[in-house]
Design brief:
By secondary structure, the chain is α/β, with parallel strands linked by helices. Helices cover about 45% and strands about 15% of the residues. α2 packs across α12 and α5 packs across α6. The longest helix has about 30 residues. It is globular, with a radius of gyration of 21 Å. The structure holds (2S)-2-hydroxybutanedioic acid.
Length: about 400
């Protein structure tokens, strides 16, 4: 049976790292997958995480299942506090329900299965462009997707007018996927005023906001980045938030994230949660505990939390610094095009405007791997690979 199969195409992001590993070129550089590297090109375990793990290891008494299978009370409360701020009205009135999921992708898939059950005819609207896994996740749950304009490639900015016009036409009951911050792949986020305007449209039209919030803390700050949620949650209407601790805790391979539903009342939230538990049970039964224990330990311990917050700030500052150095390096290498727009983008990714031909040439000639859309992981740039990277890009742009 397997013999008759066609090979599946490689994943547009994960497949690049597989190809990178096989490339024998010395000095090769992987700027594809969104993984943070320090200035030595390493992806270290956070100090706060190591300390939490030591504590967990010493205190651990059981490997029993996580109960309930939607996540412990402590973890879910910690997630909600980070998203909305401790004591927020939506938390106090118990109209939030959180399910612990394996990573942000797990949260998106549980959300997709729930949407398919709740609104079998709904569509999910995705920004153009978006993370290449988004359409695949919704397709896997049998949900059709459509696109709304997002990025002005010519002006190198958010295409806000057309974006808002398109969202004014999304029918009631459909879902609009919004990237909470550090839009993947463009790095261009709406301003606070623009978020308010989008929330107004959601309310007027009756579509449901579905946030993919995988980079909290990497744009302007932990609380600052969560401002995108504020006007939607204040409306009292339903909001879906898929959050991840892969990047902001560096817990990539622990697979820890959450789906948080904000409802109009505690009763509605509890009803929705009962279905999330059912969906989880038939998917993977029970979430993995280690990552969530780390997150809960850190967020509930003032000293560890302060250390973690400063580690997140360190990442954010290093990425912003590299962004500027990258722009300066391209200029110093004689690149004619103005790349200063890259400093306006937020988070790990630079949407460079490099074409598929440039991307291929960087890979073939220099062993420099970036995503086919021209997305470059700035968090993989270091003082020691910058010179070679700048020279190679200057060469392919000639
Ligand atoms: C990315 O876009 O590179 C990250 O979100 C990692 C992934 O799983 O694709």
């Amino acid at each position: 049976m397997f013999e008759a199969l066609e090979m599946a195409p490689p994943d547009p992001i994960l497949g690049i790292t597989e190809a990178f590993k096989k490339d024998p070129k010395p000095g090769k550089i992987n700027l594809s997958i969104g993984v943070y590297c320090d200035e030595n090109g390493k992806t270290p375990v956070f100090n706060s995480v190591k300390k939490a793990e030591q504590r967990i290891l010493a205190d651990e008494k059981t490997k029993n299942y996580v109960s309930p299978n939607s996540g412990t009370v402590e973890y879910c409360a910690a997630v909600q506090g980070l998203l909305f701020g401790a004591g927020h009205e939506a938390i106090a009135s118990k109209r939030c329900a959180t399910a612990h999921t394996p990573g942000g992708t797990g949260a998106l898939r549980v959300a997709a299965d729930f949407i398919k059950f709740l609104k079998p005819d709904a569509k999910v609207w995705l920004s153009e462009p978006t993370w290449p896994n988004h359409p695949s996740i919704f397709a896997a749950s049998g949900i059709p997707t459509a696109a709304y304009p997002y990025y002005d490639a010519e002006g190198k900015k958010l295409n806000f007018g057309p974006l808002l016009d398109a969202l004014k036409k999304v029918p009631a009951g459909d879902f609009v996927l919004l990237h909470g911050c550090c839009h993947n792949p463009t790095g261009m986020d709406p301003t606070v005023d623009e978020w308010n305007a989008i929330a107004e449209v959601a309310k007027a039209q009756g579509w449901v906001p579905l946030f993919d919030f995988a980079y909290q803390g990497l744009a302007d700050g932990l609380a600052e980045d969560a401002r995108c949620l504020t006007p939607f949650v204040a409306s009292g209407r339903e909001v879906y938030v898929c959050s991840s601790f892969s990047k902001n805790f560096g817990l990539y391979n622990e697979r820890v994230g959450a789906l948080t539903l904000v409802a109009d009342s505690e009763t509605s939230a509890q009803k929705a949660l009962s279905h999330l538990k059912r969906i989880i049970r038939t998917n993977y039964s029970n979430p993995p505990a280690h990552g969530s224990n780390i997150v809960t330990t850190i967020l509930n311990d003032p000293a560890l939390r302060a250390e973690w917050e400063s580690e997140v700030k360190g990442m954010r500052d290093r990425i912003a610094g590299m962004r500027q150095v990258f722009v300066d390096t391209l200029k110093a290498k004689g690149v004619k095009q103005d790349f200063s727009f890259l400093t306006k983008q937020k988070g790990m990714f630079s949407f460079s405007g490099l074409t598929k031909a440039h991307v291929d040439a960087l890979k073939e000639k220099y062993g420099i791997y970036i995503v086919g859309s021209g997305r470059i992981n700035v968090a993989g740039m270091t003082p020691s690979n910058m010179d070679a990277l700048g020279s190679a890009i200057a060469e392919v742009l000639k």
